[in-house]
Amino acid sequence: MERLTEAQRELYEWLGEYIRVHQHSPSIRQMMQAMNLKSPAPIQSRLEHLRTKGYIEWNEGKARTIRVLQAIKQGVPVLGTIAAGGLIEPFTEAVENVDLTSLSLPPQTYALRVAGDSMIEDSIVDGDLVFLRPVPEPDQVRNGTIVAARVDGHGTTLKRFYRLGDRITLKPANPKYNPIEVNAIQVQVQGSLVAIWRNYN
Predict the structure, then answer these.
(1) Which of 78, 76, 91 is nearest to 156 (CA)?
(2) How far is CA 101 from CA 23, 73, 74, 97, 149, in A?
(3) Does 62 share its domain with 101?
(4) Do 16 and 83 belong to one domain?
(5) Residue in 58, 54, 70, 47 with CA at minimum distance from that of residue 2
């Protein structure tokens, strides 16, 4: 199916939840309020795109007849692979979704699949899923925190984070690998570790 824009997905997911709870579709005014919009035009445009893309349908000329056609994917988006070894380029779009509705995870949590063995002494092994939350204030990251960090010109890696002055050390948990030591301006902390998931099947 055709991808949704962020605005379309926001409305689509809200619609699905509203219909699930209330057993009928909302009014245009309710949708405007939920999306913080003052005009019905953007709502009508998003609804038309959702219908064109096959996500919803409704009966022409009848109010509150919107039906969600596609099940909303629940769970945590897996945004690709994180290197536990060298450095690799990250992904920004979800490549799969993992349903972990029984777990309590912070808002905006996302997952990356581990590739490599540089964090094995922290019990993070090749093939694991690591769950991370965005870091709104990278300057507040505590030393020793396991992070996903992007190093300018190289890629993204999973390591323990240490700052000393204007230098950052990204330290592996495997003596086979050397720490990455760079200037702070070269490092963008993209997320801090929340949980690890491993499938033994």
Answers:
(1) 91
(2) 22, 11, 8, 11, 27
(3) no
(4) no
(5) 54
Give the start-end residues of each E strand in 30-186.
56-57, 67-68, 76-83, 96-98, 110-115, 129-133, 146-151, 155-164, 167-171, 180-183
* Residue 64, amino acid: R
Domain that holds residue 42: 6-68
Tokens of 155: 């890629």
pLDDT, mean of each 10-residue run, the chain (201 residues): 82 86 88 92 93 88 81 60 60 52 68 90 92 84 94 88 95 94 93 85 55
Catalytic residues: 118, 159
pTM: 0.55
In a domain, 1, yes or no: no
Q: Are 109 and 182 in contact (CB under 8 A)?
A: no
Query: Residue 175 half-sphere exposure, CB side, CA atoms within 13 Å?
Result: 0
Q: What is the pLDDT of residue 69?
A: 85
- The DSSP-derived string for 88-106 is BPPP-S-SEEE--TTS---
Residue partners of 120: CB distance under 8 A and separation at least 6: 84, 173, 174
φ and ψ at 33, to 5 degrees? -65, -45
